[in-house]
Design goal:
About 35% of the residues lie in helices and about 30% in strands. The protein is α/β, with parallel strands linked by helices. It starts with a strand and ends in a 9-residue tail after the last helix.
């Protein structure tokens, strides 16, 4: 039987546009979480809301990996932009993830996860490449799919894709001082959120291919002015659905002889 793809987000609102697309749906409860099993455009999937923060995300990732044996995992949702050119409405695809609040110094170097020998956890390159192709196509069509005037209401013109380092921590970053400190210490960080790096550590332990897709909802500083819940519902979750469906339905490359 085809192994499912696990799709996870911190909040159900971030999965809002995907859930109605499921067919052959079965719902099960595990560890206080409602797990949705079904098919998304023919692909077996398991969808789950993890809850916010690294522990909640790691618990969910471990549960899904151990009990549902997915072929891969996609963590999605919103994030705050850090790099100067990462704006509201843009999409960030992680290539590496790091816990910005991990510090076991002087026993281990700052950011390094103790006993792993590394601070940065890479995503699966092939999965990220598939998502990049899907994201580029969907962002090109975003003004038509979501409505240019609707995007403009959120201050979004032509959303762009960025790929690179995403950082995670158990702190909601919402001031210019915090953002500046993160940019100073981790100048290549594109975006900040609260779950991805923990999921990356779990997936590394399980040998499970991972991709992380984030839609930028704010600039992680004092300038945030977007209605977060409305943005997540009307923009981020819809972009996520478009990209995920496009990635799942991409023609698979033919095996070479």
């Amino acid at each position: 039987m085809q192994a499912p793809v696990a799709i996870v987000a911190a909040m159900e609102l971030e999965l809002r546009a995907l859930l109605p697309q499921l067919t052959d749906v079965q719902r099960v409860a595990r560890a206080g979480r409602e797990i949705h099993l079904g098919r998304l455009h023919g692909q077996r999937v398991v969808l789950a809301r993890s809850g916010i923060g690294k522990v909640a995300a790691a618990t969910t990732a471990t549960l899904l990996a151990a009990e549902f044996a997915p072929s891969s995992m996609l963590f999605t949702g919103v994030a705050g932009g850090l790099a100067p050119d990462v704006r509201v409405g843009d999409v960030v695809l992680a290539r590496e993830l790091l816990q910005h609040d991990m510090d076991a110094s002087p026993l281990f170097p700052r950011y390094e996860v103790p006993l792993t020998g590394r601070a940065r956890f890479a995503v699966d390159a092939a999965l990220a490449d598939r998502l990049a192709v899907a994201t580029a196509a969907c962002l090109h069509e975003a003004p038509h799919a979501l409505g240019a005037s609707h995007l403009a209401a959120f201050g979004i013109g032509h959303p762009r894709m960025h790929q690179g380092l995403v950082i995670s921590g158990d702190r909601f970053v919402s001031t210019a001082a915090e953002s500046s400190a993160l940019r100073r210490d981790l100048p290549d960080a594109l975006a900040v959120e609260m779950e991805g790096a923990a999921v990356a550590q779990v997936c590394a332990d399980f040998g499970l291919p991972l991709a992380v897709l984030r839609v930028i909802s704010d600039r992680a500083d004092d300038s945030a002015h977007v209605d977060f819940l409305r943005f997540t519902r009307e923009v981020a979750s819809v972009l996520t659905r478009l990209i995920v469906v496009a990635a799942l339905t991409q023609p698979r490359p033919s095996p070479t002889a």
